[in-house]
Amino acid sequence: MMYNNLDDLSPEDEAELRQLEVQITELFSLLEKSEIQISLLKDENSQLKAQIQKLQQQPRSSQYKSPQVETIKVPKEVIPTVVPTDTSLRQNKRKCPNCGAMGFSIKEVDDKTKIICYSPRKIYKKKKVCTKCRFEF
Ligand SMILES: [Zn+2]
């Protein structure tokens, strides 16, 4: 059918056909341009997606760190439970029985006459000295 129509074309129809062909090539070039634009936009889109992924990974990585911090906190929690008993003992000991001075007035020094342990290194028994009345205990 189409071939028959082409064969029977009048000069006017032929001119119209050429115009249409020009229009088609123009449309194809426009289509090509838009395809180039699409590919450019796709590239841009993939770049933006990569940026988004990077940005999303950053808080995620910090979230991954937080449980590690919590696991580190576990031994830290053990230390405070030890520290209060230790400080309470120190506070009890750090009071001069002679004059009643407390805290920084009491110095803790090694009593070189009383060795607790010889190996791996010498550990002397600690003694307290009151800096106010020089009472040793
Ligand atoms: Zn004292």
Largest sheet: 2 strands, antiparallel
Ligand list:
zinc ion
Strand arrangement, largest sheet?
1-2
Please state the structural category.
alpha+beta
In short:
With 137 residues, the chain is of the alpha+beta class. Helix content is 65%, strand content 15%. Zinc ion binds next to loops.
Give an account of the 3D structure.
It is a single chain. The chain is an alpha+beta fold and 137 residues long. Helix content is 65%, strand content 15%. The chain is built from two helices and two strands. It has helices at 2-7, 11-93; strands at residues 106-117, 123-130. A two-stranded antiparallel ribbon has the order 1-2. Strand 1 (106-117) and strand 2 (123-130) form a beta hairpin. Mean pLDDT is 79; it is low at 81-91. The chain binds zinc ion.
Indicate the topology.
Elements: H1 2-7, H2 11-93, E1 106-117, E2 123-130
Antiparallel strand pairs: 1-2
The protein binds zinc ion (ZN).
